[in-house]
């Protein structure tokens, strides 16, 4: 099933965070090989990242996750630890932050 990334993030989603389509500088899908779901990521020009999940059947889960601008490794590691504490899997965290799952695993191991 083809899916348009621009339809995943509605104008309401963007407005909720004070953004508009013109502020989007990167749109990507990261697939989950086990479930077939995909993480849709929208990176804004001010550094924040919005994340939504699209299931294998094409259902868009309406919860939007806003990640803060990450400028240092320490900030990234804190975000990884926080997401892990909030029941996100290593694979989900890696897809959200566009990093390898090994990096997430290393950060969580060094607690």
Explain what the structure shows:
With 111 residues, the chain is an alpha+beta fold. 36% of the residues lie in helices and 26% in strands. It contains five helices and four strands. The chain has helices at residues 5-8, 11-16, 73-85, 90-97, 101-109; strands at 24-31, 38-44, 49-54, 60-67. A four-stranded antiparallel beta sheet has the order 1-2-3-4. A hairpin with a 5-residue loop joins strand 3 (49-54) and strand 4. The model has no long low-confidence stretch (mean pLDDT 88). InterPro entries: Trp_repress (IPR000831), Trp_repressor/repl_initiator (IPR010921), TrpR-like_sf (IPR038116). This is Trp family transcriptional regulator. It comes from Amedibacillus dolichus. Pfam families: Trp_repressor.
Primary descriptors:
single chain, 111 residues, alpha+beta, 4-stranded antiparallel β-sheet, 5 helices, 4 strands, 36% helix
Main structural class: alpha+beta
Give the CA-CA distance, first to last residue. Answer: 40 Å
Fraction of residues in H or I helices: 25-40%
**What's the tally of helices?**
5
The radius of gyration computed from the alpha-carbon positions, rounded to a whole number of angstroms, is 14 Å
How many β-strand runs? 4
State the strand order across the main sheet: 1-2-3-4
Tell me what portion of residues adopts beta-strand conformation.
25-35%
Assembly state of the chains shown: single chain
Mean pLDDT: 88
What does the main sheet amount to? Answer: 4 strands, antiparallel
Low-confidence stretches: none
Strand and helix order? HHEEEEHHH
């Amino acid at each position: 099933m083809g899916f348009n990334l621009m339809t995943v993030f509605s104008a309401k989603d963007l407005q909720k965070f004070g953004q508009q389509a013109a502020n989007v500088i990167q749109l990507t899908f990261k697939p989950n090989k086990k479930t077939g779901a995909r993480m849709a990521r929208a990176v804004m020009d001010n550094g924040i990242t919005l994340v939504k999940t699209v299931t294998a059947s094409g259902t868009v889960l309406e919860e939007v996750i806003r990640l803060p601008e990450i400028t240092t490794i320490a900030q990234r590691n804190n975000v990884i630890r926080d997401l892990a504490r909030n029941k996100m899997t290593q694979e989900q965290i890696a897809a959200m932050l566009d990093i390898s799952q090994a990096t997430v695993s290393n950060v969580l191991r060094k607690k």
